[in-house]
UniProtKB/TrEMBL annotation:
Listed PANTHER family: GLYCOSYLTRANSFERASE (PTHR43630:SF2), POLY-BETA-1,6-N-ACETYL-D-GLUCOSAMINE SYNTHASE (PTHR43630)
SUPFAM superfamilies hit by this protein: Nucleotide-diphospho-sugar transferases, TPR-like
Domain of life: Bacteria
The EC number(s) this enzyme carries: 2.4.-.-
Domain Glycosyltransferase 2-like per the UniProt entry, residue ranges: 7-148
Name of the protein: Glycosyltransferase
Enzyme class of the recorded protein, top EC level: transferase
GO molecular function, a single term: glycosyltransferase activity
Pfam families listed in its UniProt record: Glycos_transf_2
The keyword Metal-binding appears for this protein: no
Length: 359
């Protein structure tokens, strides 16, 4: 049996607080570790070298794809795995990657892995999607885009059960936003992808009016990936809600129906908007819909599994209690408790109903 070999390729800057954690989590599954440093002023390069990585310098030119392509050029193994410094492989996923290396006749061009971005109080993923993580070096795949870059792949794809876990320890900086603003000032025409991610950066920095404008530019152009279209409607709704324009927030969420049947995430968002307006009948309708629409999510989209399971029951508990239907409120509380017994809100409701004498 001839095992495939793997080069880990990463770009980093000032990651001394997380880099060792990342490399330690994956080093047993890779055959070389390539670290491309884009200007660290801390111990990042020293830490990388101490763990056996090959360290290269790359002059930062405000272009993430250029840095990633440089890192890929240094690889010598059959396959390239890419990670960010605040990512890790949990032990079970490390074992899955090692097992994948031992498969006979493994000849895929790209391997997707789940990407878990956030977690609930029980450690279960609340937001995840798939990304192309492991690619055949001989295919010479390239990255594109100065910021929020993407890896263009084609050929035979394998959807693995391996997950990469994101463990961010620092808040996002304004680096990405500043790159976009500089490009805009220079008169560059943004691609649909740029429009979408620029709007996201504006939203993340609480520049809600500008974000709404760019989400509309993106959606009106009708050239975006369908999952980005759906996300743009949802995030535009968030911006309107932050601006206390609830009617427009609701309208923006309903706009997702132009691209997909109702998804549980958006049903719960709509339920929340109506609940905050004390419009309980509408809220009950949308939370109930969330329990029957999980079939419309995909691995390639962002989704929160809680919105199709215990969370709608938790919110229906509130709605039915507010309108005085204690029987249904207790019913949904019991279902929420069965699915997520340790959640603080579930425990609060348990004590609430016991104090009322209905449990």
């Amino acid at each position: 049996m001839v095992l495939i070999t793997i080069s880990l390729c990463m770009i980093v800057k000032n990651e001394e607080d997380v880099l060792a954690r990342c490399l330690e989590s994956v080093k047993d599954a890779v055959d070389e570790m390539i670290i491309v440093d884009t200007g660290s002023t801390d111990r990042t390069k020293e830490i990388a070298a101490s763990l056996g990585a090959k360290v290269y310098d790359f002059e930062w030119i405000n272009h993430f794809a250029a840095a990633r392509n440089f890192s890929f050029k240094q690889a010598t193994c059959d396959y390239i795995l890419w990670l960010d410094a605040d990512d890790v492989l949990l032990p079970e996923d490390l074992n899955r990657l090692i097992e994948l290396k031992q498969r006979d006749d493994f000849n895929y061009d790209t391997v997707t892995m789940k990407y878990h971005l956030s977690f609930d109080e029980n450690g279960n993923p609340t937001y995840s999607y798939r990304r192309n993580r492991l690619v055949k070096r001989s295919m010479n795949f390239e990255w594109f885009g100065p910021v929020h870059e993407y890896l263009a792949v084609y050929g035979a794809s394998y959807h693995s059960d391996i997950a990469v876990t994101h463990r961010k320890v620092r808040h996002a900086s304004d680096r990405n936003l500043n790159i976009y603003l500089a490009r805009l000032e220079q008169g560059e025409e943004f691609t649909p992808r740029d429009q979408f991610y620029f709007a996201n950066e504006l939203r993340d920095h609480a520049r809600y009016e500008e974000a709404i404008k760019w989400y509309d530019v993106f959606l009106d152009g009708k050239k975006g990936w369908v999952e980005d279209n759906i996300a743009a409607c949802s995030r535009k709704s968030f911006c309107y809600a932050e601006l206390k324009q609830n009617d427009l927030a609701i309208r923006s969420l309903l706009q997702t129906l132009e691209y997909t049947p109702p998804r549980p995430d958006f049903c719960c968002q709509l339920g929340n908007l109506f609940l905050h307006q004390n419009r309980y009948s509408e809220a009950i309708y949308w939370y109930s819909q969330a329990l029957s629409t999980s079939m419309y999510t995909t691995d390639m989209s962002f989704h929160n599994p809680a919105t199709a399971t215990w969370l709608p029951h938790l919110q229906l508990t509130v709605c039915y209690d507010r309108i005085g239907n204690t029987e249904k409120a207790v019913l949904h509380h019991k279902q929420a408790k069965e699915l997520n017994p340790k959640h603080p809100s579930v425990n609060y409701n348990e004590n609430y109903f016991k104090n009322k004498g209905v449990l």
